[in-house]
Specification:
Number of strands: 0
Radius of gyration: 17 Å
Structural class: mainly alpha
Order of helices and strands: HHHHHHHHH
Strand content: under 5%
Helix content: 55-70%
Length: about 210
């Protein structure tokens, strides 16, 4: 995926999620996907440890970008317009998956679940001490979010891989915004925007009973 290459900077994620939510509390898919491309770069910069997430997230971003550039792109400007359009036209497999391409709703749901894990992990890095074990922060965040949706084999492999994570300050330096203290400050600025996007998405999907799509 082209967007997954190049140096990561937390600033680009902050900028994307800052522009994600409109005054009407709609989530714009363009900035949302841009923010996700930045998060994927962040995970890629740590090597193969997070490949079980990055490969799936990159594929989901590509699917959504194809919808946003497709013939019905006007229906995919915002999360709200996408949900309304797909539900009204019977494009969402609610009970079981059919042989047709994944809907935008199902695709965003997978990104939404992964975003919760990243939100918890980044918050743990922000509030942790300098000697905090990143393996513990990451495992706790994973168990409170994505692990629910993964089979035992993936859960076991993930928690073993987390044990090889670098120290907290290494993570903060990878964010390319200066000193660890400056990275912590920028996380404090970026995370409320990510939390806001997550909260709006969660409420919208709950309202339409889309949180457990197959």
């Amino acid at each position: 995926m082209a967007g997954a290459q190049g140096a990561f900077s937390l600033r680009e994620v902050l900028a994307a999620f800052q522009t994600c939510v409109t005054e009407r509390r709609e989530v714009l898919l363009g900035p949302y996907l841009c923010g996700w491309r930045g998060l994927i770069r962040f995970l890629h910069s740590l090597g193969a440890i997070f490949s079980f997430v990055t490969k799936d997230a990159a594929a989901k971003v590509q699917i959504m970008e194809s919808y946003c550039r497709g013939e019905r792109r006007e229906e995919y400007v915002s999360l709200q317009s996408m949900v309304e359009y797909e539900l009204a036209n019977g494009l969402v497999d609610v009970q079981k998956r059919s042989g047709r391409p994944d809907s935008g709703c199902r695709t965003v749901l997978r990104l939404h679940r992964a975003l919760r894990w990243l939100q918890l992990f980044l918050e743990g890095l922000r509030t942790g001490r300098e000697d905090s074990r990143t393996s513990v922060i990451c495992t706790d965040s994973y168990n409170a979010s994505l692990a629910t949706y993964h089979p035992w084999v993936i859960r076991k492999a993930a928690t073993v891989a987390f044990c090889t994570l670098p120290p907290r300050n290494t993570f903060l330096e990878i964010m390319n915004v200066g000193t660890p203290e400056e990275a912590v400050a920028m996380l404090g600025e970026a995370l409320p925007y990510i939390c806001d996007v997550y909260g709006i998405t969660q409420e919208l999907f709950a309202q339409h009973k889309l949180l457990d799509l197959p």
